[in-house]
Amino acid sequence: MVLKAFTRRTPGRRFCTSSLETFRRHFYYGKTNTEIDFVLFLNGLPIVALELKHEKNQTVHDAVAQFTARDHTVRIFQHPFRYLAADTADVMAATDPRRPENFRWHNTGLTNKPLTESEYPVEYLYRGVLSKDHLLEALAFFLVYVPKRDPDGDRPASPAFTLFPRYHQSRMVRRLAGDALDHFTATGEIGRKYLINHSAGSGKTLSICWIADRLHSLYHPDTNQKLVNLVFILTDRKSLDKNIKDEIENFIHLKDVVGIARKAEDLPRFLRDRKPIIVTTQQKFEWVLQEIEKNQDLKKLRVAFLIDEAHRSQKGKMGAAIRKPFRDPPMSDGDRGEDADENWDEEEQMPASSANMIATSSLWPLPPPPLPPLFHYLESPLTPTPKQRLSLKAISWM
Prior knowledge:
The chain is α/β, with parallel strands linked by helices.
């Protein structure tokens, strides 16, 4: 089978072809002919291994135990980037199968539901996750290799490892980037606003890194025009110094395009140099908007803002700055009154001047508080669980 895959960072839709072999069922290895239920090969190399159980007699946890009990010195466990353990209702996944704690839930929500009648709840696994397009996208984009690091000052040494998104993370990136690119292709503009709900432990910081990477790497399908010229990641000082900094530095393929504004002079320099991805604090948001507004060259650029932990900054001057791209130009926070932050205006719309901006906010916790119609909503193709239904209008549940 010959497949087409969108090359990760090549302008336009240049394609590479790869041969994806059919699943090899009952793969046997070693002197004792130990069996793996399924192994998927790409150009002759094993890329995915699966252990499947039926919950009538065994569960996903038995599949995990089977993976962890293997002899991991055998070469078949040194090549795949994904190890999937599944039963008919749940899926767990790992990039390193040696320990049970490496396997994390890879479900669509709190519970899985079949996409079509009479199918298993894990239908999304064999029709989506393991589809040819998703597998090649995973290899071309989502999989991140982090090399080993020697000790450096207060930073301890760390072994090499790989990063790979959980299901909700890849779904969010795919849906947001896909909608933004479709809008850009149809209109030539990128004016969109998205809200991403997330909960504690959902991998929010990594999600921000993946969506920044994706937005930076996308091009108009028929031209060499980039979707966005600049991506701003706006966070608080604590996250900038620790969480965001540590995670974005793991994306070593971005090391030459990311600028982390630790000092006052960094941000103006990054803007002058047109650093493609800029990490700064939310307090600098208003200054950035002013610079874009008064600089004719900057105004011509397409810009994306990823706003971390938006719930911490909904009041006062910071809240006014964050809401500025989402409001009609005549409306100011002064016009709204001192207590206006308590009640969102139902008629706020994105100004025409924001046609070349993508603004994305993340909000914690679930369930979310009432929000204005500031955001472009994407409905989920899956029926949400009761807890997820609380955030139905969000782009993704995390």
